[in-house]
Design brief:
Layout lengths: L1 H7 L4 E5 L3 E6 L3 E7 L2 E5 L5 E7 L1 H4 L9 E4 L2 E2 L2 E2 L2 H16 L8 E6 L5 H13 L4 E6 H8 L10 E6 L4 E7 L2 E8 L3 H16 L1 E2 L2 H11 L10 E8 L5 E7 H7 L1 H16 L3 H10 L1 E4 L8 H9 L3 E3 L6 H10 L2 H7 L2
Parallel strand pairs: 1-9, 9-10, 11-17, 17-18
Antiparallel strand pairs: 1-2, 2-3, 4-5, 4-6, 7-8, 11-12, 12-13, 14-15, 15-16
Helix pairs in contact: 3-4, 5-12, 6-7, 6-8, 9-11
């Protein structure tokens, strides 16, 4: 019955509802939306959120640059919904963008969620998706979708290990036979790296920078360990003492120092997951290695640092930013996978 229904409705979609970015996969068309999870809204006199002005890329351009009556909201925090009403508006916008005129029939929807979230948080995702226009909502664990998208043999009786470093959470999981054998969820990922850089700038340079600038620093010179030759970027910020804007040089060595704590916590989570892995699956990981996915996987030297810490082969997925959405799309288009992997 499910097979017939999934085949009949060609406007079904899969959503990687991320803290930093939201990606939408449409049946037969692939990834049709890839936008920041940001919404710009007006602020009412009482402080509540009012009218939605912009969503996605356009809204992200406003972060840190809005007047007092407009606020740029990121409705997801640490991989879960922090603002239900704004998440619903954002989803509605992205679904409309993905389906256009096809929205006449309410779609079935797969939404990827962190493995470690609570039942209350799962219900919030389902309700938000239904309110945004979904007829039926299936939840799929992010590590499973990421592993599928990275090309790991998750349906076979072989241990595969994925480390999915997103915007709000890092999901570490060992998978086998279409299920998660062991998993750890850490609320340290891309956002916390940005915060660590901003805190380091304040401490070392006595300057304040916004989250957008911190992210730009991370993308330009972010490294998990010092590199040779050292790279640098000129950063503009506001001097704490004088209150006057000034420019300073931020190097890749500064980035390695700023991100040291975040990287250490990710490595420790990988170690703990390996300690909880059944011996037979652990033996498979020696051959298969560890695969890194998510935006954080692009942090230079991270694969080498994890390799040195664990002694295991570590590779970065071919398209780390889109792994979850690609995997969710595979589940969307395969009723058998959906039946086995949906929560």
């Amino acid at each position: 019955m499910l097979d017939q229904a999934l085949g009949f409705f060609s406007n079904d979609i899969a959503i990687d509802l991320g803290t930093a970015n939201t990606l939408v996969y449409a049946t037969g068309r692939g990834i049709v939306v890839d936008e920041p999870s940001v919404v710009a809204v007006t602020r009412t006199p009482g402080g509540a959120h009012g009218k939605v002005l912009a969503v996605g890329t356009e809204a992200k351009r406003m972060v840190g640059r809005t007047p007092g009556n407009i606020i740029a909201v990121r409705p997801l925090k640490d991989g879960v919904i922090a603002d239900f009403a704004v998440t619903e508006q954002m989803l509605r916008h992205f679904i409309g963008q993905a389906l256009g005129r096809r929205l006449l029939v309410h779609p079935r929807m797969i939404v990827c969620i962190p493995f470690g979230i609570t039942e209350v948080e799962k219900r919030a995702v389902q309700e938000s998706a239904r309110s945004a226009g979904a007829r039926e909502v299936f939840l799929v664990p992010e590590p499973m979708a990421a592993a599928l998208g990275a090309g790991l043999p998750v349906s076979e009786p072989v241990g595969s290990m994925i480390v999915d470093i997103g915007g709000g959470t890092t999901e570490v999981a060992v998978l086998s036979l279409g299920g998660i054998a062991t998993s750890q969820s850490l609320r340290v990922a891309g956002d916390q790296m940005d915060e660590a850089i901003a805190a380091y700038v304040k401490r070392k340079f006595n300057c304040l920078v916004g989250e957008r600038t911190a992210e730009e620093i991370k993308l330009a010179v972010g490294v998990a360990a010092p590199v040779t030759p050292q790279r640098s970027i000129h950063v503009k910020g506001r001097d704490i003492s004088s209150g006057i804007p000034r420019q300073f040089e931020f190097t890749s060595d500064d980035a390695a120092e700023a991100l040291q704590d975040c990287v250490t916590q990710i490595i420790e989570t990988v170690r703990v997951t390996l300690e909880h892995t059944p011996p037979e699956l652990a033996a498979d990981i020696i051959d298969q290695g560890i695969v890194l996915a998510g935006g954080g996987a692009k942090l230079e030297m991270l694969d080498e640092v994890i390799r040195d810490a664990t002694g295991l082969p570590v590779v970065v997925a071919e398209d780390p930013l889109r792994c979850v959405a690609i995997g969710a799309g595979q589940i969307l288009e395969n009723a058998d996978l959906l039946r086995r992997m949906a929560i």
